[in-house]
């Protein structure tokens, strides 16, 4: 086993141990505290994961645009490439809420933690009344000033892959009438989906200026895609340039070649 693989394996062991041990040991405190105060425990867990990535794997992150995060309720709309995206910004968010697959709520400890934070379960195969109830719950949480985290593409995609944005975020933008904050990131280069490898290096997460409510849904949707994809391309080029030894997935290589061709270089 190479040193790179050994460090990745060690990180994975520590990552899951960190999650499970914290959940068990801190449960009496977590469930005793008021909901919002208890959220400091998941925030501390997220910070510890950033420390583990830096210390064990040698991966550092740089967050650009924190000043763009508004006060109160908004929709956070990140690119989604790995599990890292799920917790990355927790330390900088006030009171986030996620719409989760209902099966996740059945997992011991994790589901109880999520229920304490009033996360919103959804049956992905449901239609009609079930989805109406999800939207009602979402609107209720947003009225309380919470931040909805939703991935516009709906699923994890490898870096550089052809975007697959779902129109549902445009409907949420219209119905909830709150700002949408796009977030571009290429964590999938360092924490690939469906892989146990973790790669050292340095990458950036970029928080873009919020898209304010009031636009027509179609115009909003086009603006969101254009801004996120432009920023994603810029970060991909930067990550490849500053991490020359990083093994790039085929999708990233193809996208970099296309960008180089478009620029005439």
From TrEMBL:
Q: Which residues cross the membrane?
A: 13-33
What Pfam families would the database entry show? Answer: Acyltransferase
UniProt keyword annotations, A-Z: Acyltransferase, Membrane, Transferase, Transmembrane, Transmembrane helix
Q: Where is the Phospholipid/glycerol acyltransferase domain?
A: 74-188
According to the UniProt entry, its GO molecular function terms are: 1-acylglycerol-3-phosphate O-acyltransferase activity
Q: Does the keyword Ubl conjugation apply?
A: no
At the top of the EC hierarchy, this enzyme's class is transferase
Q: Tell me where on the tree of life, at the top rank, the source sits.
A: Bacteria
List the SUPFAM superfamilies.
Answer: Glycerol-3-phosphate (1)-acyltransferase
| UniProt cross-references to CDD domains, sorted A to Z | LPLAT_AGPAT-like (cd07989)
Q: Report the pathway entry.
A: Lipid metabolism
E.C. designation(s): 2.3.1.51
Tell me the protein's name: 1-acyl-sn-glycerol-3-phosphate acyltransferase
Q: Which organism is it from?
A: Rhizobium paknamense
- State the taxonomy lineage: Bacteria, Pseudomonadati, Pseudomonadota, Alphaproteobacteria, Hyphomicrobiales
